[in-house]
Design brief:
Blueprint: E1 9-12, E2 21-27, E3 32-35, E4 40-45, E5 56-61, E6 64-65, E7 69-73, E8 78-80, E9 82-86, E10 92-96
Antiparallel strand pairs: 1-2, 1-7, 2-3, 3-6, 4-5, 7-8, 9-10
Length: about 100
């Protein structure tokens, strides 16, 4: 079970966007993810008439390493670590380490 999933609200812990919050757009691989509005870089894009895209300089979110983000806890209003707890019925759920509240419902 992944500790950070698509749609989670995360806080950046390190890098040029340290302290900013955003939603996870996509998990790229086991160690990288894309966060909305975070780690934006300018990319020079060629025009592609097949895909009907124009050329120019575009802003694009680049992947962040999983270790540089932490999930946002709305009750404490801070970044928090994630643990996994097995319920009585055998389901595995994600919980905040600081207060033990469930992330998944």
């Amino acid at each position: 079970m992944r500790k950070i999933k698509k749609g989670d609200d995360v806080v950046v812990l390190a890098g040029k966007d340290k302290g900013k919050r955003g939603a996870v757009l996509r998990v790229v691989d086991a160690e990288h993810l894309l966060v909305e509005g975070i780690n934006v870089a300018k990319k020079h894009q060629r025009p592609n008439p097949v895909k009907n895209t124009t050329g120019g300089i575009v802003d694009r979110e680049m992947p962040l390493h999983l270790s540089n983000v932490a999930i946002y806890n709305p009750t404490t209003k801070r970044a928090d670590r994630v643990g996994i707890k097995v319920l009585d019925d055998g389901r595995r759920v994600r919980v905040f380490r600081s207060n033990g509240e469930m992330i998944d419902t």
